[in-house]
Write a structure and sequence with these properties.
2 domains; 21 helices; 2 strands; 3% strand
Length: 439
């Protein structure tokens, strides 16, 4: 009765009236002719003195409203509704009704809980705060939403709302990144008009060039395709050996790859040994990739793993990101687990001020950029030579392996939408005369 009541409200009443009716039922515990049946059900929940049942009912009603308002683009309604919880008077002194006292106690617990923090994520997209006022972790809301839709214990409405907003935020970041890379290389766009969607400074362009540089037969996508073909029908122990070689192959130079290889080898040798003689299949591939992802990020779902801390302490976040990318390219179904692990890491480090954990923020930025470029295929990035490095010199794979800043200066980034209408990106104000093609 409670769910149906709010479904009817959100469908047939404007947001202001719907929020008011929500406030009357859940905040004030008021009964009137329109909400009588819902009120009786809520009264029964409170009489049973089960706070979890109350919280679950409250949450599901919240996400029923949020999903419907999101569909109708009622952004201000979502923000006002969620913020309204912070205006509730939780003081029970003037209240005599036992159920209402219990209600205020449960509401107070909800507002102080992780459940309400999850609800607040839906306001960050619609917030009006300045960049200085926002917490650094808000740049990664798309990942913080993943545990909500990955958790099957959450209501269908909550999971749908979390998934929808997460996808929308990722799409927006990809679009903003493509626009920024196009405009930042154009002489016709004033620098003060550029909006960098990342938390990185001027080094972002060279970073993107490094990420995009592996292409042709040596691209990460092609290497993943070759690996999958070569490991079809092999026993699991042979697959693990091949996986180790694949993951450490062609990672950036000047990184301690031997130690990474040693760490991975030690874990893989012990992993699912009872299946060593079995032929690799999709289920075993997914379980293996999920385990390796946990090993590289957070093994207990709360604290960063030893390998994660080691790799980042060596100043090699790109190496770790590329290894994670390689895992997703051979097993796309492992991406939800990976993004859940990333969310756990963000949760762990969000207690630290930005200036104290800049090293791990750099990892989150590189991860966000890399997966925007590689893991989804609706925007294609390429490097275009704008001047010759040396006379009559052709680009080679060895050149690309030595990705110095001087070398990268000879290239510009070109991003293009893969959809039916590649002009969707438009690359506003991008003057193609800025590019001096060398042939």
């Amino acid at each position: 009765m409670i769910y149906n009541y709010f479904l009817d409200l959100v469908r047939y009443y404007d947001p202001e009236d719907t929020i008011e009716e929500f406030r009357k039922l859940f905040f004030e515990f008021e009964c009137h002719s329109e909400n009588e049946e819902a009120f009786k059900d809520l009264e029964q929940i409170l009489k049973h003195q089960d706070p979890r049942e109350f919280i679950n009912t409250l949450k599901r009603c919240c996400y029923i409203l949020i999903n419907n308002w999101e569909t109708l683009r009622q952004s201000e309604a979502i923000r006002k509704f969620v913020k309204g919880f912070q205006e509730v008077d939780f003081d029970p002194k003037s209240v005599r009704n036992r159920n209402k006292i219990r209600l205020k106690s449960y509401l107070k617990s909800f507002v102080e809980s992780k459940d309400y923090e999850e609800l607040l994520l839906f306001t960050e997209k619609h917030g009006t705060r300045s960049k200085q006022e926002k917490h650094w972790s808000e740049r990664y809301t798309s990942y913080l939403l993943v545990p909500q839709y990955a958790d099957t214990n959450n209501s269908p409405e909550q999971r749908e709302a979390a998934r929808t907003l997460s996808v929308e935020l990722k799409q927006k970041f990809k679009f903003d990144l493509a626009m920024f890379t196009a405009r930042s290389q154009s002489q016709s766009v004033p620098k003060d008009k550029l909006k960098n969607p990342t938390g990185l400074g001027e080094e972002i362009l060279n970073l993107i060039k490094r990420i995009v540089a592996k292409r042709g037969k040596f691209s990460y996508t092609n290497l993943a395709h070759i690996f999958c073909k070569q490991t079809e029908g092999v026993p699991y122990n042979k697959f693990k050996e091949a996986l180790l070689s694949y993951l450490v192959y062609s990672v950036e130079k000047h990184t301690n790859t031997e130690l990474l290889k040693t760490h991975l080898k030690r874990k893989l040798e012990k992993l699912y040994n009872k299946y060593n003689d079995k032929i690799i299949n999709e289920s075993l591939l997914l379980r293996t990739c999920n385990q390796v992802i946990s090993f590289l990020t957070t093994e207990d779902g709360e604290n960063p793993s030893e390998t994660f801390i080691y790799l980042l302490s060596q100043g090699t976040p790109l190496t770790l990101v590329i290894v994670l990318l390689k895992l997703i390219l051979i097993c796309p179904n492992a991406r939800t687990h990976l993004e859940t692990c990333i969310a756990h890491l963000i949760e762990y480090y969000r207690e630290f001020p930005e200036d104290e954990c800049q090293w791990v923020i750099n990892f989150f930025e590189i991860f966000n950029i890399t997966f925007a470029i590689y893991a989804d295929n609706d925007v294609q990035y390429d490097l275009i030579r704008v001047e010759k490095k040396r006379k009559n010199q052709q680009s080679s794979q060895s050149d690309q392996d030595d990705l110095t800043d001087d070398y990268l200066e000879n290239y510009r980034i070109f991003s293009q939408h893969r959809g039916e209408d590649p002009t969707q990106l438009q690359f506003a104000n991008l003057n193609m005369n800025d590019f001096k093609f060398s042939g």
